[in-house]
Amino acid sequence: MSAYAYPLLIKQLLTTPIQQASGAEIVYRDLRRHSYPEFITRIARLGSALTRLGARPGMRIAVLDWDSHRYLECYFAVPMLGAVLMTANPRLAPEQLAYTLDHSGAEILLVHSDFVPLVAQIRDRLPKLRTLIALPDDGGMPAGLSFAGEYEALLADADPGFDFPEFDENTTATQFYTTGTTGLPKGVSFTHRQIVLHTLSLMATIMLASQQGRLSRETVYLPLTPMFHVHAWGIPYLATLAGMKQVYPGRYAPASIAALYQREGVTFSHCVPTILNMLLAAPEFRDLDLARWQVIIGGSALPRGLAEQALARGIDVYAGYGMSETCPVLSIAQVKPGLAGEEAVRARTSAGMPSVLVELRIVDEEMNDLPHDGAHQGEVVARAPHLTAGYVGNAAASETLWAGGWLHTGDIGVIGADGYLRITDRAKDVIKTGGEWVSSLDLEDLISRHPDVGEVAVIGVVDAKWGERPVALIVPKAGRTLDPESVRAHLFDAAGRGEISRFAVPERIEIVEALDKTSVGKLDKKRLRARFG
Asked: Catalytic: which of 325, 379, 444, 455?
């Protein structure tokens, strides 16, 4: 009767670095650095301060901040109160941000000075919001809104010995909104149990690697995925559990990221392809030694051209795969021992092998399993202990997501005999032309290998004769000029090697200044189709 049940709560992730007496630091830009014991005390102070301001179990507490030590403290203190951390996306249009904050029911909002004008613009559309906390970097109270206090001042006046309660591990811990390109954003939530199990699954997968793709307590971590986006892929929780040195860059700017990389000895990051492409093209990164840097690419497929460019600079680059609804990591493209050359690059640019405790299937429309032969394509469906139960307040969409008892990713893929998953397209982006299926991702991957291509998107547009035809939209590398005919010749060479059919080569190749992106840096193909279709 006296046995302790040990609920899987986020606060348990703090046990290990405390017991290991981690000597690592948590760094924010060039403005702050503190130890793990200070971090633990700051979490207690934040819990105390929020409680004094009326925080209670079940309350939604939202954050609008750049990647910072404050955000990391909120990752822990808010759910450890039994409240729900709502990670608001400042890159949404004002009306969408207002919708997500109001739909979530957020009553307390912590807001960085940079976002005060944005919140002031939508304040009258947030009737449930009653308390604002300022997050200035300079300690000064920003003007334009009525604040209950400034973050550091509130912490200084709070109880460093605040004791967080225990409760059911199935209590909701976090909530955020997907950034889909159709309709209103959809709310996704995760429980304490799900986040702890995702952290353990991710840690086991990454740390079981024999050579490539392995992390350790000595890793120096700098996230380049916004902390509002699926818990920055859950890796801050992993980094904290492992007691790693953590370096938070604030607003992303190549100059400051390069300075942090050098000064703090960064060895590991994760980002979308757009960010890595931006950094490799930045003058500040031109002369840096990047050989110690391990980078996981997610959010979009890792193009072969970008992978080769990063590998040439010494970066240990490889892909991860998942979605907002999966917490998010489902698979990681670690390179199996013995793979080298072309095979290793192909492994790195795949979606990878399933993480620990994750079940992945490739199925047809009747949910029948398809062979793992690298040829039979079907929808990717998943089961894992860290998948969302559904969309907040949207039962119909939740049932569609979980039709047949498996979470439907909406991605089309193949699994090879080697166990690697390859995503061939989003179901909504696959192009059917003249009865032949053409993968936009395969075409993007091939075009990315052209030496003058910086970024590329391939979309399908209506064609009177063939139903649809692919169109390639290309941003040249900085300082380069690009002839569409050279790209077409490059693709016909690939067709001659059997990598694609000649019929798949686009007649229409357009050179553009920029590609439309979603708020988290993914290609926005809906907008691209509207512009170029």
From this structure: 325
Residue with tokens 């010995």: 161
Q: Is 325 a catalytic residue?
A: yes
Condensed to tens digits (0 to 9), the pLDDT of residues 22-61 reads 899 999 999 999 999 999 999 999 999 999 999 999 999 9
- Structural domain range at position 490: 429-532
Instruction: Tell me whether residue 437 is one of the annotated catalytic residues.
Output: yes
- Annotated catalytic residue: which of 87, 174, 178, 205? 178
pLDDT confidence bin for 182, thresholds 50/70/90? low
Task: Report yes or no on 153 lying in a domain.
Answer: yes
Tokens of 218: 């000595």
Q: Which of 432, 499, 507, 510 is catalytic?
A: 432
Pair 351, 223: CB distance under 8 Å: no
HEC profile of 190-236: EEHHHHHHHHHHHHHHHHCCCCCCCCCCCCEECCCCCCCCHHHHCHH
CATH number at residue 117: 3.40.50.12780
CATH of residue 441's domain is 3.30.300.30
Q: How far apart are CA 367 and CA 373, in angstroms?
A: 17
Task: Please say if 432 is a catalytic residue.
Answer: yes
Would you state the pLDDT for residue 520?
Answer: 82
Domain end call among 157, 190, 223:
190
Contact call for residues 460 and 440 (beta carbons, < 8 A): yes
Which among 137, 170, 190 is the end of a domain?
Answer: 190
H, E, C per residue of 246-275: EEECECCCHHHHHHHHHHHCCCEEEECHHH
| Mean pLDDT of the residues in the chain | 95
293 labelled catalytic: no
The residue assigned the tokens 């092998």 is: 353
Band the pLDDT of 263: cuts 50, 70, 90: very high
Structure tokens at 106: 């957020």
What's the total number of domains in the chain? 2
Indicate which residue of 218, 437, 499, 507 is catalytic.
Answer: 437
